[in-house]
Amino acid sequence: AGGAGRLRVLRLDVTRACDVRAAKELVLSHLPERGFWGLVNNAGISTFGETGWLPMETYEKFADVNLLGSIRTTLAFLPLLRKYKGRIVFMSSIIAYFTLGNGIYSMTKAAIEKFCDALRLEMKKFGVQVCIIQPGNYARSTKIQPPVSAEEIWSELSEEEKAVYSKEYVQERANFFNSILSEGSTNGSEVVDAMVDALTSPAPRARYMVAKLKEKALVFVCALFPTDVMDFFLSYALSK
Where does the sequence pass through the membrane (predicted)? Predict the structure, then answer.
C-alpha cells in the first residue's frame, strides 16, 4: 500500500482537537470518488493500580485518551460516515466486564461500550455500521501494558495510602498482575483480522470477542450470573 502511494501516515494525538481537525482536512483533500468508508478508533493506554493509588490526573488522562479521544474523532468524521454509509470500529476489551487490578482501564472500556451501543442504534437509519472489537489478553503482542514495578508503585503512593497498604501487599499485587501479563497472547494478528472483517464484511458483527476460551467463560459468568457470584470468583482469584 505504501509503495503504491495508497497509504498516508500522519501524526494524530486524539486528545488534541487541532490534530483531529488536521486529520479530517487531510482526508477531505484526498477523498476518493467512492468517499469515506471507515474509521477505526484504536488509541488506548493502560496502567495498574488500586483505586486510591492513582491520582486524579491519571484518571483524567485515561478518560481523555481511551474514551474522549474516540468520541472526539468520531464526532469529527460522523458527517462523512453518514454521507457515504461507512463503518466505525472501536477497540474495547473483555476487561469492560470485570477488573483484576486495572479498574481505571476497565472504566474507560465499559464507557466506550455504552457509547457504541447508543451510536450503533442511532446510525442504523443512515446505513452506518458500528462495530466493537473485544480482545482478551494481548499484552505481550501490543505492549499496551508493560510489567509493573512494585518499587515504582510504592514510591508514588501518598503517605495516606502507605499507612493503609504495606509494601509487601503492593509487591503481591504487582506479582499477580505481572503473571497475568505474561500469559498474554503473542498473536496480535487475530485482533487485526477482526478489525478487517468489521470493515469489509457485507454483514459485520456488532461485537467481535477475540479471546481465549477461559476468558470468554469469565465474561459469560460476569454477564449472566449475579454480581455476588462474580465477586466471589474474582476475590478468590485475587487471594491466590
Answer: 88-105, 217-238
> Between helices 227-239 and 213-224, what is the axis angle to 10°?
140
Which domains are assigned to the chain? 35-147+187-239 (3.40.50.720)
Is residue 66 within 8 A of residue 109, CB to CB? The reply is yes
In whole angstroms, what is the distance from residue 217 CA to residue 33 CA? Answer: 45
138 is catalytic: no
pTM: 0.91
Find where cell 472501536 sits: 90
DSSP 86-119: -EEEEE--GGGS--SS-HHHHHHHHHHHHHHHHH
Q: Which of 105, 138, 169, 236 is catalytic?
A: 105
Instruction: Return all residues near 11 (Cβ < 8 A) that are at least 6 apart.
Output: 19
